[in-house]
Amino acid sequence: MEPPQGSAAGGRKRRRRGGARNRRKASSSSQQAPPLASAPPPPSSPPAKRRRKDGAGQAAATPKRGITSSKLDQMRARLSAGHFRMLNQTLYTCSGQDAFDYFKENPNYFDVYHAGYQEQMSRWPEQPVNIIINWLKSHNASWTVADFGCGNAAVAKNVDNKVFSIDLVSDDPSVIACDMAHTPLKTSSVDVAIFCLSLMGTNYPSYLEEANRVLKPSGWLVIAEVRSRLDPNNGGADPEKFSKAIIQLGFSLVSKDAKNKMFILFYFRKKVSFCYINHPNGSAFTLNSVAYHDPAGKE
After folding, report:
1. Where is composition skewed (Low complexity) in this entry (predicted)?
2. Model's pTM, two decimal places?
3. Cα 270-166-236 angle, rounded to 5 deg
4. With the C-alpha atoms ordered 116, 119, 123, 127, is the resulting torsion angle positive or negative?
């Protein structure tokens, strides 16, 4: 049986419509696609990064990714600062003998500590050691000085006085390495004892007792301390109580310099002992008498 005429015609119409669509597609594709010969060959390696043009029209080098030298320097600085803080905390929370033993076993840590210390000091507008050096220069050059916690021995290097430089570790033959509570200095042998930011450790009062032992009568005790340690509002010690405690050791407070925002300077003087032999009851006794109250801090 032959298919109906309408069906065949409809099929032919569909084929014509489909063919027209195919012809239109082929025609539009041939108009849009570039000739085969002009197509670029496939790359044999990854394409090069684009280069930016600078103001002169030249290609500027693309910056390399990764850690630059400045970033490395910043990382080293942060690491060094972290080591310094750790060692600084250790010195504040252990005894002088423990600190001496610790640095004796790890002398390179002492170098790390002092490198961090110098970095911190470089940010201060004024350094207390320089004030103390100038104070010594304005006094008697024949005085003998004991610099407790001398660091790089800046005092000895900048004054004409005879200076015993004392610290926990020594890589300099002129520095005495010891626990500062037990120095080899003779009793009543020095005129000035200095603690420049060095009253550290759980037994720091014993350092002051040692300074009292080696000082001559009327000798000077000069202390520079970080202001934050003497701020009771922020957990520090009361500066008045601190002074009274030292006075009880046998000193008088001559002057205090608190004008610097980073540290406070104290100038104490050792009291003089008088011995009276002819006491009415026939026994000798010692009377501690405050002497040499000179507001200017001079002889």
Report:
1. 27-36
2. 0.61
3. 65
4. positive
